[in-house]
Design goal:
By secondary structure, the protein is α+β, with helices and mostly antiparallel strands. It has one domain: Gcn5-related N-acetyltransferase (GNAT) (Aminopeptidase, 3-Layer(aba) Sandwich), CATH 3.40.630. 34% of the residues lie in helices and 17% in strands. It contains five helices and six strands. A six-stranded mixed sheet has the order 1-2-3-4-5-6, sandwiched between helices. The radius of gyration is 15 Å and the shape is globular. The two termini are 17 Å apart. The model has no long low-confidence stretch (mean pLDDT 92). InterPro entries: Acyl_CoA_acyltransferase. This is N-acetyltransferase domain-containing protein.
């Protein structure tokens, strides 16, 4: 029905609040993560722009700490409303943010898809095996823990153009 918002996840689905891989912990991101997140984003700005800039304009050239706080507040609220979910990928001691995982509903143009998952790691972790380890973890987590059968990975198994064509 037009104008009726369909729930992204069932009301009785319990959103994970903490999961762990070999070298990381994943938990919902929030405004309290702004210092660590801003460091990860700004130290990886070129890499993130290459991946997301053309489609989302992020992180924009004028991206600053205040905008980072606004962004995290938005992402936190989206999770509370169960419309999309963003997770911080942190070291085991949670002293350093290593990246993020975003889980979002698919565009209307892909009705057979249950969710889209995007993840990234900070530039100084490139080549350490973390991104591969996170990819393996997230691919299993998205279909075993979450109520999704058909998950796509924009920028990986589906082009950004196709994903954003809605």
């Amino acid at each position: 029905m037009e104008g009726v918002e369909v729930a992204f996840v069932p009301d009785d689905f319990v959103v994970p609040t903490l999961v762990a891989g070999q070298r990381f912990r994943i938990r919902p991101i929030g405004v309290h993560d702004v210092v660590k997140d801003y460091d990860a984003v700004m130290s990886s700005r070129e890499r993130l722009w290459e991946r997301f800039g053309a489609h989302f304009g992020w992180p924009a050239p004028g991206y600053d700490f205040e905008q980072a706080l606004v962004d995290l507040g938005w992402l936190q609220k989206e999770g509370q409303l169960r419309r999309s979910f963003t997770f911080a990928v942190l070291t085991a001691d949670e002293e350093r943010l290593l990246g993020r995982v975003h889980i979002a509903p698919p565009p209307r143009s892909l009705p057979e898809v249950d969710a889209g998952v995007v993840f990234w790691v900070r530039s100084d972790e490139a080549g350490t095996g973390l991104e591969r380890e996170l990819a393996e973890f997230v691919h299993e987590w998205a279909t075993v823990t979450w109520p999704f059968k058909n998950v796509r990975y924009p920028g990986q198994d589906i082009s950004w153009e196709e994903w954003c064509a809605d």
